[in-house]
Amino acid sequence: MKKKIPIIVVSLFAVLVMVLAGYIYNRFRNQDVKKVEIRIDQKNGKGFLTQEEVRSLFDVGDSILQIKIKNLNLNKIKSEISKNPYVENADAFLNISGNLIINVKEKVALLRLVNYKEKSCYIDLKGNLFPLGKDYVERALFVNGYIHAALVMGKNVQDSVYSKSLLPGLYDLAMRIHSDPFLNSEVSQIFVNSQGKVDLIPELGNFIIHFGDLDEEEIKLENLEAFYKQALVKEGWNKYKSINLAFTNQVICTKK
């Protein structure tokens, strides 16, 4: 009989814990949302979205603070926020205090593109097209010229609609430049001429870099970086009129 007493006590304690947990859980579910905290991951604390704009994406009609936690649809909130063209991903959850926490990650612009019809958009690091901001301009690699591609927001450069355009190649070139700290600081613009050939405009120096076709990109960029470090550093930025990378494994320079 003595052995059964501890078992009974443990069982009663377990039941008590379950009842108490259920009570706390139901009390939590039946309380109103206490507070909304919105956190936006963006460059230097500035970006396309403000906390007020994010809140307006899901907090419509009756205030979210008047909704009981049990009636709160977190998946719907996350879905509504994710529809915004500047949002890469979003998350929504409740903390133990009953506060609604919204985490938003903004898209990062890889390049700003202007096509042959002077239409503009950004392309993010994943290759997705998204519109320019109303009040915010993000610094990105500028790409323009004879780019014959309709800019459809939400499309990706790898989508079939762009398979015959230069967008996939320009995106790949921009990614290679972006991933190299040295080139990323030296190249400020990509221009496509009327023959579909590519020129690079440097950040420093009054010369043009003729890149040519969008092939052998890695080799050409390696040649360019080597030329910068070996020749331009020694001879200066103003000695050359143009640098031609169009021919693989050689760099042809034209002096002023």
H and E order: HEHHEEEEEEHHEEEHEE
How confident is the prediction overall: mean pLDDT?
A: 85
Please state the structural category.
alpha/beta
Number of strands: 12
Distance between the termini: 105 Å
Number of domains: 2
Uncertain stretches: none
Describe what this molecule looks like in 3D:
This protein is α/β, with parallel strands linked by helices and 256 residues long. It folds into 2 domains: 35-106, membrane protein fhac (Ubiquitin-like (UB roll), Roll); 109-255, Rossmann fold (3-Layer(aba) Sandwich), CATH 3.40.50. It has helices spanning 4-29, 51-56, 74-82, 167-179, 181-186, 217-235; strands at residues 35-41, 87-94, 99-106, 109-114, 120-124, 129-130, 141-145, 187-192, 198-202, 208-212, 240-244, 252-255. A 9-stranded mixed sheet has the order 6-5-4-7-8-9-10-11-12. The chain has a 3-stranded mixed sheet with strand order 1-3-2. The mean pLDDT is 85.
Give me a quick take on this structure.
Helix content is 31%, strand content 26%.
